[in-house]
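Encode chain A's predicted structure.
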Amino acid sequence: MKKALGFWLSIVTFIATIIWAIAEVQGLSFWQYIPRLVVPTILFVLSMWASKNLPALDAAKIKAANLVGFAGFFACVAALIAAFFPHDKILNPVDIVQDPALAKPNAENPDNWEYFGRNGNGTRFAPYTDITPENVKDLKVAWTYHTGRDTSASVDENIPIQIGSTLYSCTPTNIISAIDGDSGKALWKYDPHAKTAEHITCRGVGYYDATKDKSLTAADLQAPGIKACPQRILTSTVDGRLIALNAKTGALCPEFGTNGQVDVLHDMGPTEQSKRYHPTSTPLIAGHVAVLGGWVRDIVHGEPSGVVRAYDVRTGKLSWAWDVGNPELVGEPKDGKGFTLETPNMWTIPTYDKDLNLVYLPTGNGPPDYWGGDRNGAKEKFGSAIVAVNALTGKTVWSYQTVHHDV
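Encoded structure for chain A:
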């Protein structure tokens, strides 16, 4: 601190950083300058204000350094204020066309909202015309339904699905309600008594209708399990279960897993006391499989596997597992080894293209996500990526990585 060399080096380094930032951004792009200059500016300001401790500098230089430091400080404040205003707008130069090919309703079930994003593709397009920009201000509350959620639990994140005139919703602790959409009256309620000490959330439920499954034969439809639950609601619980319910009655589907339930913590790694792995997102129904990912803690070593699994919605049996650490795996892991730990997980909700028979998996990073020094090839290849897998086999078709070596 007593030598002036560090002081002059800080000035040279800061000027070089500015030149580098300008050369790399090549334009006036506010948000691109922020990560390149804010932290260096803060360090530069501190070095300027520390100049008073340098005996080698005379009073004039110290005064100038303080003024420069204040200039840098106010520049940071200005950048903070400016961050609350729009910058770098990206505008589409092409006129928006009301293309019916892009904005067409679901041809099979035009009145239903069967998925988190309305359809398997997640378009969220609603072909409804009763509510318009002109009359939306006149809407009144038609009814209110109280789910009975535990107020000490996490926030509500669920998107109810609509099948005909019935809505299906879930609370953070996975209490499933069937609600009459016209009156708001409860049709049935199912409480799985799900308990966990962390990350209590439910984003929604899945829906499967065996009578519309074209892969089934007439004989298949007469099977006891299908006859008992021709239409079913699928939900994953925060304590690691996949549950199938009769959509009309709320009763467990007896032929699914063990009396309507499947343990999804098996072979996942450390999940003691239902901690460290939580399938909080909506099971995606892709044909006759329910695709399931899950939440892990991310920030530490030794976390459960990020494997994405598909279960047969009729039987509860594992159809396939997308385990990047064991790409040749077909079903359950052999020899008690379990799924590969610390692989990139899919916490959110995938999408499904029925025509292409592909499921699109958005992945995170392999734990620990803030440290990338010891990632293996599988973690590097499939982290922060969009991965297309075959809906019937789970085999990778292609992968696009949005950020390489993301931390």
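The longest helix spans residues 59-82.
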